[in-house]
Amino acid sequence: MSDTVVVAGVFVISYGMIIAYSVYLHLRRRRATGAPTTNVRRVQDVQ
Amino acid sequence: MTRIRVLLGVAAAAMTVGLWFALTAPPDALQGEYSRIINVHVPSLWLAFLAFGVTALGSIMWLWRKTQRWDRLASASAEIGVLFTGIGLFTGMVWGKAVWGRAWDWGDPRLTSTAVMFFVYLGYIALRNALDDPVVKARRSAILGVVAVVQVPLVYFSVNLFRTLHQTQSIRPDGSTMPAEMLIAMLVNVVAFTILYVALMAARTDVARIEEASQEIELLAGDAVKPPKLSEVGDV
Q: Which residues in chain B have Cβ-Cβ distances shorter than 8 Å to A21?
């Protein structure tokens, strides 16, 4: 694997982790505020 | 929420500028393209040190004032610190594998002390998740937050105190060992990551504040706020 590909992968994974954490915070906030979500649940799980 | 969106927008712009500097800085004469990893590795660990310092400050202030917002600040900062310590370890391992020929060495004080710091703050998060009572949670994590920060100077100065595989600091009181273009790129990224820290802290403390408020409502209202079961609803 070329050096450039490895270094690009390091940047993608590092920045990806930061973006993933931001998305996680956004979803956690939505859940805490009781905002409507597209989560799916079976009827028997709700009962 | 608007303030947080603006902060995250500014952080995204700063990170984009930082990425541009990282990718356009000249490569190292011996390491080649791998030297660009410094633009993520150093800012990540700088941010982790800053975050754990803020955790200690928040912990001390909670122990003194017993105000919930200090606990919120401390816990939010610890979580962000763990994330960036993880990124620092990952980038360091890839860089080490390419330049030293090995990704990890348990005999190296810098690497080992950073790993210990990572696991101690993971333990801090685990401790908080294991406790329900908000006062007990805040007190115990504040004590750990104050004790654990001792590791930050130990990790930083480990390269000066012991013979290590890891290099010593590139920026010292008597100047820098780095060429200007590389140094500027790294410093731009340090600033960008610091702005990102402020934005993530604002977002994380906001989530904690909302969660605390909803928990208080549940405690006060009890079963009254629980939705009825579908089987209990007559006419659907």
A: 80, 83, 200
Q: Write the pLDDT tens digit of every residue in B69-95.
A: 999 999 999 999 999 999 999 999 999
A vs B, Cβ pairs < 8 A, gives 67
Please report residues of A whose CB lies closer than 8 A to that of B230: 43, 46-47
Q: Does A3 touch chain B (CB under 8 A)?
A: yes
Q: Under a CB-based contact definition with an 8 Å cutoff, are residues B138 and B71 in contact?
A: yes
- The count of other CB atoms within 10 Å of the CB of residue A46 is 10
Asked if B75 contacts B218 with a C-beta cutoff of 8 angstroms, the reply is no
- What pTM did the predictor assign? 0.89
The pLDDT tens digits of the residues spanning B121-160 come to 999 999 999 998 999 999 999 999 999 999 999 999 999 8
Give the phi and the psi of residue B175 in degrees, each rounded to 5: 130, -170
ipTM of the complex, rounded to two decimals: 0.89
DSSP for B126-190, please give it: HHHHH---HHHHHHHHHHHHHHHTTHHHHHHHHHHHS--SS---SEETTEESS-HHHHHHHHHHH
Sign (positive or negative) of CA dihedral B25, B31, B34, B39: negative
